[in-house]
Amino acid sequence: MVRECNACGEATDLKRCAGCHKAWYCSVACQKSHWVPHIFDCKPRRPITTADHLALAVRNNLLPQDTQTCEDYGFERAFTVENRSKLLGLYIGLMDPGRIGIPPKTINDWRVRGVLVEEIKAAYYKIPAEFRGGYFPWFLQNQHILNPAADSQSNEKGDAMVLHAWRFTGGSETDSPADIRARISSMDQDMQRCHLFYTILLSKWHPAPFDDLWIPFGFCSCSCEEEEMYLGGRYQILITKCTFDEFCNAYRSARILDLFRTNGIDVNVRYLSDVLQNYRMNKSVWDLKQFALQTDEQNPEGRIVNSVACDYGFMNCRKDAETQALKKVYRTFFERFDANPLALHDAAIRGNIFGYLGSLMKLNKKFERLMKNPYPLPVLE
Fold first, then answer.
1. Cα distance between residue 125 and residue 147, in whole Å
2. In this predicted model, what pLDDT tens digit does every residue of 70-114 receive, in sequence order?
3. What predicted TM-score, i.e. pTM, was given to this entire model?
4. 176: CB partners within 8 A, 6+ apart
5. Tell me: the pLDDT tens digits for 5-45?
6. CB within 8 A of 279, min separation 6: which ones?
7. What's the CA gap between 344 and 111, in Å, rounded?
8. What is the C-alpha to C-alpha distance for residues 40 and 66, in angstroms, rounded to an integer?
């Protein structure tokens, strides 16, 4: 039987794990790197904790499946798929050996001592702001879901926000927080989004460019933050005039504008109809706007929608400096008072981004190469 290192696959200089006598490793480094999954098959000298399950989830980039782990580390209190994914992203940044690299034993100790929230903040504050990632700012606004005991005031505020939205949307006055969490988790994605949107609106907020709700509810069509506040106010009026089911049905069927009109609410946002009538297959220019307006802290991994990379030239960038320069040009465009996103979209479809933007602002010749795309597509006869 040919043995291989359980970590890297090397077949020479192998030594057997002293705990289980079943796994083989070619070096101490490989053994350490493989310990996170191997602990569950081995005979560790300490009890396996929920922090070990969390570390496995971080390693696999998957939400934890262990029920107690979800309870201990806030996933049960993160009501939507989006929020649970952001919470996982926070832990990846915290525990990944290539990032902050806090080991599971330390994470467990923080939780047991009731200092999880404070220690997470301390760990992130030790690194420069530009390297903290986009999940850390989200965490600062949602600390209550990680450790209620460590931040009871925030937890009470967060619970109050969700309870308010739950009762506003027709939920029972007698439903417990656990009942509400279970009911929200069982909703389909559209209804979860609508409920989260209600929670934000009833708290007198509105989605920002780094939020998942910024495009689906049309805030990307606003020309500035003041217009986003105006649109948020229109929505706040709307939800007092329709039922939650009516709102969800209008959202699913792309008829929110009809719902505004039916309830006698005027909404004067120039490009709102383009977004709301096509929210399931929105034009890539709106994803471009979100990408361009996000800071590196809000999008630390530089994630970009494939259609944006193709349509707006990011696939042509050979190094990060070119990506950042191209992103800055688009951000400058979107921040103009006379920016017309649909005109930019049309220019992209015609394969003339450089010509269009060049008519509005002074561009370096290098952007002609960067802004090339596959359009216009050939006409098939």
1. 18
2. 988 998 888 677 888 999 999 999 999 999 999 999 999 998 888
3. 0.62
4. none
5. 988 988 888 888 887 888 988 998 898 889 899 898 887 77
6. 215, 216, 218, 251, 254
7. 50
8. 13
